[in-house]
Specification:
About 15% of the residues lie in helices and about 35% in strands. It has helices at about 5-15, 75-80, 85-100; strands spanning about 35-45, 45-50, 110-120, 140-150, 150, 155-160, 165-170, 175-180, 185-190, 190-195, 200-210. Strands 2-1-3-11-4-8 form a six-stranded antiparallel beta sheet. Strands 7-6-9 form a three-stranded antiparallel beta sheet, with no helix packed on it. A hairpin with a 2-residue loop joins strand 1 (about 35-45) and strand 2 (about 45-50).
């Protein structure tokens, strides 16, 4: 497959989503989001985890949570030290090199990886409480890790400067949406429980040339 790894190895990562701490920065007062966050640098076939850092976006890209330094718990070593994790990070960096950079010279890609669990403990869970948005990066990859006993969660992508768009629902574990962030805006509709509390697990990986987004 595109990632250069076996589907069974990706499934082996999924248990890590059962141990995500609450997102303490939700400005809508919800308790439905749990997450971890870690950062990496990919250059060619080299992948290095960088010291833990906060996640920052300008208000231009995140009207709800932009302009604030958000320190989430880092991903566990047991997750990021797996061989398949390195394959994931390299695949995203190499795709950015091919699809965005259009150069044979190796670009240093600054990768932010977010583990998300959105649940229905509040009766409704919002994968993108900030609404339709861009992330301020070059490439976005959204992997559906799993979804359980929920309805909704439709992904919507639209041209940032045009009328065209698409709507679809990621349903199969480890299916992925790849997005040129400079050209497109995206959002995912809320989830609701089907008959009991459910959840939607995703891995969001962004690649940005030059540097990580930094305050100031």
């Amino acid at each position: 497959m595109w990632l250069g790894c076996e589907l069974a190895d990706l499934h082996a990562l999924s248990a890590a989503w059962d141990d995500l701490p609450p997102d303490e920065f939700l400005k809508d007062g919800g308790k439905y989001r749990h997450r971890r966050h870690s950062c990496f640098v990919v250059t060619g076939d080299e992948c290095t985890q960088v010291p833990h850092r906060g996640h920052w976006q300008p208000l231009e890209y995140n009207a709800l949570h932009g302009g604030m330094q958000r320190w989430f718990e880092p991903m566990k070593d047991a997750t990021v030290q797996q061989r398949v994790w390195r394959q994931l990070m390299l695949a995203v960096g190499q795709l950015a090199q091919t699809a965005v950079a259009h150069t044979a010279d190796a670009v240093k890609w600054h990768i932010e990886a977010h583990q998300f669990r959105i649940d229905t403990s509040d009766g409704i869970g919002r994968p993108t409480p900030e609404g339709a948005h861009r992330d301020g990066v070059d490439l976005v990859a959204v992997f559906l890790v799993n979804r359980h006993a929920v309805k909704g969660g439709e992904t919507r992508i639209f041209e940032a400067t045009g009328p065209n768009g698409q709507r679809f629902t990621l349903a199969e574990p480890w299916s992925v949406m790849l997005l040129d962030d400079a050209r497109m805006i995206h959002e995912t509709t809320p989830i609701q429980p089907e008959d009991t509390q459910g959840w939607r697990d995703t891995l969001v990986v962004t690649a940005r040339a030059g540097d990580f987004q930094n305050a100031g």
